[in-house]
Amino acid sequence: MRDTIRQALQTIAKHGNASVFADNQRFTGTLEDVLGELRSKKQIDSNESTRVRNLLVTAMISLDAYARLELSFVAGNAFAVANLTQEMIAKYDTKEDSAQIVIECIAELVGYEVPKELLAPILEPVLPNGVTKERSLQEISESWIKYSVCIATESGYTVGLKADGTVIATGNNSSGQLDIAGWRNIVAVAAGAMHMVGLQSDGTLVVAGDGHFFQCDVSDWRGIISIAAGGFHTVALKTSGTVVVAGDNRDGKCDVADWQDIVGISAGGIMKGHTVGLKANGMVVAVGENEFGQCDVISWRDITAVAAGIFHTVGLQSDGTVVATGDNRYSQCDVSSWRDIVAVSAGIHTVGLKADGTVVAAGDNGVGQCNVTNWKDIVAVSAGSLHTIGLKADGTVIATGENRDGQCNVIDWNGIGFPLIERKK
What we know:
By secondary structure, the chain is an alpha+beta fold. The protein contains eight helices and 21 strands.
């Protein structure tokens, strides 16, 4: 069955771009055509065809739009894996290797290697016969990608998304950017210089803080699956793979109307900023301020994640290495020796999360923002201008760097993590 699933996924991918996986109806129709062709060629029988169809359709339905669109991250998304595994086992299959086959085949399709030490603990709680594991689910990353939306930092404050869908924040509140006490059903947060953005489970946004440059004019946005905030602009990715932006556009950082097939976004800069988009084919686009070459990403390939810093841009490659372009006055772009990286973040400095839960950093360390050598069991990182935040597997948070505004006062935080909220259809 593994070969059939692999062949079906590869054929579906050839029928169109990544958006085919984000549309249940289109995916199902394309899958039916592919399986019909395989049956006509006597490559599979009707029983295997039905089983493959049920498994793959259920897998796609079980994943929310964000995970479906960002295929390269599915393998690292434990929450999505657990959901689709439960659905597949409950509805169609009782063999414990079925979910693993689907995940590994999807991962193979997008060139993402599934870490065995991550996969087994993820599947153990939902598989009927259990899987031997060395570490508990709480001691590893439930989701490198999903967790990356659970913490956000800017120059003077830090934001945390709790597992119950509420938000906590500490630091500078001079523009009301921390006035988020009433936020509910949040599934992602992003921090700008003087404003904060929250993505709600229904695909709409909430904002708090300064809107002087109209960066908070997002009330009519719909169908949003990912958000980012620059100094004075707000960026959002839609289910269609297109991008919308609001805010200061004096340097062209909002000129994204022609972007298509985008699966990831990031926003950087303060007054002069830039916007970066990751395409489904692993290439990168960027607009905005380019004084230091921070938008010179046209040659990048095989990228799985991007991070826009103040004056530089970082890309995570599918092999776990990192590329960077832009301002390197503080050596923030000296990342060529990094290996086994699974997530990146950028401020004035660059931070990388390794597969083993440790962290590396490069760049200015004037206030200790790069003092992360001893960090362990980290599942997400966020780089502010002068401080760094790490989310631990147990839902607590660690911080280092500038604390003048109390942005590092996170020692009592707990329960930070991707909310178990069903996305509204």
